[in-house]
């Protein structure tokens, strides 16, 4: 048996037991893919991140759900960078420090904001330019989510958007509808098997905070995640969707997720461009470490 250090970080929040927890192994050298997957299954959070050296970027980072690897993930990126700063692996320099991470989708930058005393205040993940993919009929998803037809945002498309990981955007009319979802997980798994997306992102064009432009819930039962508390990659896709289809008219805004399941999180978005000319999406948030320890592995 050997031991590895592992950290649990709550992302998209500034206080423990909120936002979305991620496992982070900041020294994953020597771990093969099967071992990474086994560790992620044991940790049993929506994602666990593994950091190794890279000859293309500052860090190589891989993300695993309890049963599969995914190419890009938002909240584990926020958690990973927070842990690397806290452990002294990243040193902040001035008001903004840029590092790069090599992911399965390529090399992408992460910007780290600091206050006047050099303390980390916000982490910004740049995602891939959005791709707007397949469009779906709303009715089967409404049935699987327990939404009456009147609860669907009828003038909005149900469409897959990818900023690195493809996710299906499903807009509903209000927070009232979002609060009352009754998802049939088997039905959602069956629908995903015939789709072009990894997971389902359901959102309303309002939030609990007056300044929030949307509130979301996220379901990925096929990947071993019944409901993800706060989803950074899908928030990026949702931000691009909101701007492209004119639901938001500002390039920088805030969205919410997790409040309905007791894990409130805040996600900041920056979207460059408009309509079909969106060129960049950035997802920002805070994080807090809640557990540090070791895991024994074969």
Which SSEs are present, and which pair or pack?
Blueprint: E1 2-11, E2 20-25, H1 33-43, E3 48-52, E4 59-64, E5 69-70, H2 75-86, E6 96-103, E7 106-114, E8 120-127, E9 131-136, H3 139-145, E10 158-162, E11 166-171, H4 175-179, H5 185-193, E12 199-204, E13 212-220, E14 225-228, H6 232-244, E15 252-257, E16 265-272, E17 280-285, E18 287-297
Parallel strand pairs: 2-3, 4-6, 11-12, 13-15
Antiparallel strand pairs: 1-2, 1-18, 3-4, 4-5, 6-7, 7-8, 8-17, 9-10, 10-11, 12-13, 13-14, 15-16, 16-17
Helix pairs in contact: 3-5
Find the count of extended strands (DSSP E, 2+ residues).
18
Work out the helicity level. 10-25%
Instruction: Provide the low-confidence segments as ranges.
Output: none
Task: Kindly estimate the percentage of residues that lie in beta strands according to DSSP.
Answer: 35-45%
The overall pLDDT, averaged over residues, is: 97
CATH architectural category of the largest domain: Roll
Outline the structure in words.
- 19% of the residues lie in helices and 41% in strands.
- It has an 18-stranded mixed sheet that branches.
- The N and C termini lie close together (5 Å).
- The mean pLDDT is 97.
- The longest helix has 13 residues, at 232-244.
- Helix 3 (139-145) runs antiparallel to helix 5 (185-193).
- It has two domains: 2-127 and 286-297, Diaminopimelate Epimerase, Chain A, domain 1 (Roll), CATH 3.10.310.10; 131-278, Diaminopimelate Epimerase, Chain A, domain 1.
- It is globular, with a radius of gyration of 18 Å.
- It is of the alpha+beta class and 298 residues long.
- Strand 13 (212-220) and strand 14 form a beta hairpin.
- It is built from six helices and 18 strands.
């Amino acid at each position: 048996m050997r031991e590895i250090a592992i950290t649990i970080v709550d992302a998209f929040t500034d206080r423990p037991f909120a936002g979305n927890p991620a496992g982070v192994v900041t020294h994953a050298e020597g771990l093969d893919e099967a071992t990474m997957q086994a560790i992620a299954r044991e940790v049993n959070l929506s994602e666990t991140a593994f950091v190794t050296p890279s000859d293309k970027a500052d860090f190589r980072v891989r993300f695993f759900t309890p049963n599969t690897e995914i190419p890009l993930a938002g909240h584990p990126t926020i958690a990973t960078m927070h842990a690397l700063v806290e452990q002294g692996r990243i040193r902040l320099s001035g008001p903004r420090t840029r590092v790069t991470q090599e992911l399965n989708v390529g090399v992408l930058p992460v910007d780290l904001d600091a206050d006047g005393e050099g303390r980390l205040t916000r982490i910004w993940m740049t995602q891939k330019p959005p791709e707007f993919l397949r469009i779906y009929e709303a009715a089967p998803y409404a049935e699987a989510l327990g939404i009456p037809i009147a609860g669907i945002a009828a003038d909005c498309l149900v469409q897959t958007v990818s900023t690195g990981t493809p996710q299906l955007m499903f807009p509903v009319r209000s927070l009232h509808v979002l609060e009352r979802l009754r998802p049939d997980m088997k039905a959602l798994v069956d629908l995903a098997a015939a789709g072009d997306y990894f997971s389902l992102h359901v959102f309303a064009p309002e939030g609990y905070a007056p300044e929030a432009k949307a509130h979301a819930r996220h379901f990925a039962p096929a990947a071993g995640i019944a409901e993800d508390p706060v989803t950074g990659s899908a928030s990026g896709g949702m931000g691009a969707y909101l701007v492209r289809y004119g639901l938001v008219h500002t390039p920088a805004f805030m969205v919410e997720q997790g409040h309905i399941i007791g894990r409130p999180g805040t996600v900041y978005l920056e979207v460059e461009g408009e309509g079909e000319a969106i060129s960049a999406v950035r997802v920002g948030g805070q994080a807090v470490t809640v557990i540090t320890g070791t895991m024994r592995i074969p």
